[in-house]
Amino acid sequence: MSIKKYVFGKSKIRVNTFIGGVSARVDSANALAGLLGVGVERIKLFRIIGSDIECAVIGGSYRFSSYAFSGDSNLTHYIDEDGLIDGLVINNTPIGDNPNLTRIKMQGIRAITAGYSFRHTPTLELHFPKLEMLGIYVFHGRTNITYLYIPLCITIGNSVSVTSEVMQFLPVGSKVYVHPSMATINSGLPHAELASLISKGVYVAYVDNLIKPSSVTDLTILEISREYIQIHFTAPYSKNDLDFYEVHINGIYHQQLSYDNYVYNLKPNTKYNIKIIAVDVLYNKSTNNNSINFKTADIL
User: Where is each Fibronectin type-III domain found (predicted)?
Assistant: First the structure.
């Protein structure tokens, strides 16, 4: 189902926090409030959806309790849509040693200073659009980052000419999106940390604009089966070249779009909401994309 706005008194409250895989452990607003370091009165619209939870956190920013989700092997994603997590710094290792964590989106974080903050957590996507500083060893021991989005980051480690092992373990095929000043910050050369990544085959993009692709507005479904659907839409206008499309199911990333426009790994006789997000080569993502509801076919 689509995410809707709800009205309490004169204020509109909507779901802004999505946490995957933790419902067995975090089964109430009280339990979540303790992990986020807030009063339970700040947790609204708490809901369990299978193994995932979602809610609206109100009342401004918050800071995780120490080691809040560290070591939780069930955690699959943490999406903070409104950038409410303390915008100054993460330094108490709230996430780490999470072998099934695939996505982190924290819109407001400006600095990550503690080494091993996300250690041994093979996340596919790390999305920190306001991050300005990365301390040493932050991603030490990581092996499976696919996308690291830090377009405002101007400080990496403690030297521009010598690596500080901030991103040492990013694998070949990873994509890192950084501030354009990082291309020449080392006496006209790239930051040493980035030069090291480039030399081993990591793709580094210097984000010189934040212009998003236009919205996907004409999404339609051509075929519905028990476990997959086929979709169609028109490629939107984009100032930068388009790179790929993301499929989001019920508000959560599901897959990159395959060449044949099929969406797989659905359950029979189940209601879903789907939208497509266009992503350009600088990792700018389209917004206000149309979404549609559908139900997969029943088992014969």
Answer: 214-285
Nearest to 285 by CA among 53, 107, 87: 107
Joined tokens for residue 171: 């694998």
pLDDT at residue 214 in the model: 97
30 vs 122: which has the higher pLDDT = 30
User: pLDDT category, 143, cuts 50, 70, 90?
Assistant: low
The span from the CA of 149 to the CA of 152, in Å, is 9
Q: Kindly list the domain boundaries of the chain, sorted by start residue.
A: 220-295
155-186 in b/e form (b: 16+ CB < 10 A) is bbbeebeebbbbbbbbeeebbbbbbeebbebb
**Which CATH class name applies to 220-295?**
mainly beta
Contacts of 139 (CB under 8 A, 6+ apart): 118, 145, 148, 166, 167, 168, 169, 170
223 or 252, greater pLDDT:
223
Q: Which stretch of DSSP H or E encloses residue 229? A: strand 229-232
3-state secondary structure of 196: helix
pTM, full prediction? 0.85
Q: Report the candidate in 101, 163, 175 with the shortest Cα–Cα distance to residue 134.
A: 163
Evaluate whether 59 touches 42 at the Cβ level (below 8 Å): yes
Residue 220 to residues 179, 232, 291, 294: CA-CA distances in angstroms? 36, 5, 9, 10
- What whole-number distance in Å separates Cα of residue 154 and Cα of residue 137? 16
Over residues 252-266, the mean pLDDT reads 88
132: Cβ–Cβ under 8 A, 6 or more apart, which residues? 110, 111, 152, 153, 154, 155
How far apart CA 129 and CA 207 sit, in angstroms, is 11
- Residues 51 and 11: their CA atoms lie apart, in Å, by 29
Alpha carbons 24 and 261: distance in angstroms, whole number? 34
